[in-house]
Amino acid sequence: MRDFMTSQFGVSAVLAFVVLIVLLGVVAYCIYFERKISAWIQDRCGPNRVGPWGLLQPIADGIKFLVKEDVVPNHVDKPLFIFAPAAIFLTAFIGFAAIPWGGQLELDGRLVDIQVANPDIGLLYILGVGSMSVYGAVLGGWASNNKYSLYGAIRATAQMLSYEIPMGLCILVVVLTMGTLRLEEITLQQTGYWAEWIPQWNVFLHPLAFAILFITALAESNRTPFDLSEAEQELVGGYHTEYSALKFGMFFLAEYAHMITASAFIAVLFLGGWHLPGVPWTQPEATQWYAVLAKIGVLSTKIILFLFVMMWIRWTLPRLRFDQLMRLAWKGLIPITLALFVLAAALLFFDLQRSPLLALSGNLAILVVALIAASSSRLRVTGRQVNLPTIATTTDFVRVGRVETPL
Amino acid sequence: MIPETDILRIDQPELTASERLYLPQIVEGMKTTLRHLGKNLFKNTFTVQYPEQKRDLRLQNYRGVHRLNRDEQGRVACVACYMCSTACPAHCIHIEASESPWPDREKYPAKFDIDELRCIYCGMCEEACPVDAIELTPQFDLVGRTREEMILDKEELLAVFDQTAAMKPRKNPHVTGYAGTGSRSQEPPAGVSAQ
After folding, report:
1. Residue A112: enclosing H or E segment and its boundaries?
2. Are A149 and A241 in contact, with CB atoms under 8 Å apart?
3. CATH for the stretch B66-164
4. Annotated domain spans of chain B
5. CB contact, 8 Å: B2 with chain A?
6. Which residues face A107 on adjacent strands?
7. Cβ–Cβ contacts within 10 Å for residue A406, how many?
8. Distance, CA of A273 to CA of A102 (rounded, Å)
9. Please, are residues A254 and A287 in contact by the beta-carbon 8 Å criterion?
10. Residues of B with CB below 8 A from A377's CB?
11. Residue in B12, B17, B33 closest to A41 by CB
């Protein structure tokens, strides 16, 4: 038994269970902090009635979701309607399997990975599972048999398709630089130093790719300013309009789980995962149990930072209009990431992919070109394409002193 | 046909280079929200934690639940003149007058009901009353389980006076009634100051 528990399989099984339970709790508290941060930003207090500082609010919310009436409307496609929240919940949570949480642990003289699975294609696995999350939204919207829900689902699909391209290109930049798809290996390769103290994190090689990956992660997890698929003001509630009780709760939790996966993913790809320069416990050689805990703490801190920035953005920026969303992806992010990809490929060709100065100056050059191109664009504020025929100009509407009667 | 002089032509302002980029604007917005977040993280200065804290109401002006005032002898001050129910825009005051058992006035209200659910708390009754018998109090947390419970009768309205008299004393305690003359321009009784 002890032999089984200390084997990689046993550790993975325990870890899968623990990660799932912990994440469910963390996701619930994400909702609490989302409400708190929104309240602080808007000069309010936020939940403060249930428990000290309202800390028991997620538990009260959970009980509420459980005991509420679970309405399944008559007009829905019942099997799909029930399957959709399960699909989005499942795809949001299985992505965690490939995240390297804490390096390696020494157990009974053997080294085991603190990672549920360490496949050769860990990066592709997360990417694939992440794109599957759109299934839940689409199935929910379609099964609801409601035009607003369907609109939300259609928007979600188009958005995911568009933003997966720059996301994939950003990840390709990392893959070209690191030469591996194994997430643990990507973390390990970032634990070196330049000039003795600057960690060899990918963010210092390709900061532009890092920023764009973060933007696409916002879009992929349907967060403001890219939350068009659940735009309350236009679509009642988007693809989960018809859902209630725990089914709605699952959609809600899945959104936060998705945010956490995306944050962990970006932290591993660009911020060195569990590595923190100068702390001996977070170096790859440290394999004691306390070192593993320290590494998990470092990665969690990076994830929390990302979550905070996502929430901060949500309560600051207004939602993009659909054509602006598409323009940003196809005319903005994709050309920039293509240029980055060419840069990374060229550096790889000359075997200079780890040269920070060349990579940084290349990123800077692409950024400057992009900024100049964007600021010299003469598109109208309304975003209307210039080559389309004019429907009306402002002067057609502004009439002073009389009300026009229809002919 | 609209004459050219009636048309105001407005051109859309041209965006500057930084406005076309949106990025400086986004940074400004993020700074603003972060400032608010930092300020409220430790101390929120705006919110009143209602059941524990209560706002200082303007006791003389607040228009809450009505009360029927008592005069110095503890009798209902109302003289059943129907001025308030006439002035009421919501028709929520129902009075039944009857002959007064006291020598200083002709009528008194046998019944005096206010439907607090119909009332719009405009204060017209208070302004109309010739003897300052009906007043609105700062009490705002009136609740009930049924609609019938929310119709306050004479005794309940007098009870509201008993509860709120200390917080908001009657405006003109010397005005007691017509005293048979129909005039209210009499001198206050001895011992009661004009204030």
Report:
1. strand A110-113
2. yes
3. 3.30.70.3270
4. 66-164
5. yes
6. A110
7. 3
8. 9
9. no
10. 20
11. B33
Residue B108, helix vs strand vs coil: strand
Using DSSP's 3-state secondary structure scheme, residue A124 falls into helix
Q: Which residues of B touch A37 (CB under 8 A)?
A: 37
Is-contact A28 A58, C-beta < 8 A? Answer: yes
Sign of CA dihedral A262, A268, A274, A276: negative
Are A398 and B10 an interchain contact pair (Cβ–Cβ within 8 Å)? yes
Q: How far off is chain B from A376, nearest CA to CA, in Å? A: 7
ipTM at complex level: 0.76
| Residue B94, Cβ density class (10 Å: 0-12 exposed, 13-18 middle, ≥19 buried) | middle
- Euclidean distance between CA atoms B174 and B184, whole angstroms: 10
> Using the 8-state DSSP alphabet, how is residue A191 labeled?
S
Using a CB-CB distance cutoff of 8 angstroms, which residues of chain A are in contact with residue B17? Answer: 375-376
Backbone φ and ψ of A198, nearest 5°:
-85, 120
**Residue carrying structure tokens 């929120």:** B44
Tell whether B27 is within 8 A of chain A (Cβ).
Answer: no
| Cis preceding linkage at A225, omega within 30 | yes
Tokens of A126: 């997360």
Taking CB atoms and an 8 Å cutoff, what residues of chain B touch A383?
A: none
- Whether the CB of B1 is below 8 Å from some CB of chain A: the reply is no
The number of helices, as runs of H, and strands, as runs of E, in chain A is 14, 4
CA–CA gap between residue B29 and residue A224 (Å, rounded)? 14
- What are the pLDDT tens digits along chain A (407 aa)? 667 777 778 888 888 888 888 888 888 888 899 999 999 998 888 888 888 888 899 899 889 888 988 888 888 888 888 888 888 888 888 888 888 887 777 777 777 777 888 888 888 888 888 888 888 888 888 888 888 888 888 888 888 888 989 999 999 999 998 888 888 888 888 888 887 788 888 888 889 999 999 999 988 888 878 887 777 777 777 788 888 888 888 888 888 888 898 899 999 999 888 888 877 777 777 777 888 888 888 899 999 999 999 999 999 988 888 888 888 888 889 999 999 999 999 998 888 878 888 888 888 999 999 888 888 776 554 555 555 565 555 555 554 444 444 44
Is the model's pTM score more than 0.80? Answer: no
**Pair of tokens at residue A258:** 């998705």
**Residue B11 is encoded by which pair of tokens?**
């051109």
Q: Taking CB atoms and an 8 Å cut-off, how many pairs form between chains A and B?
A: 74
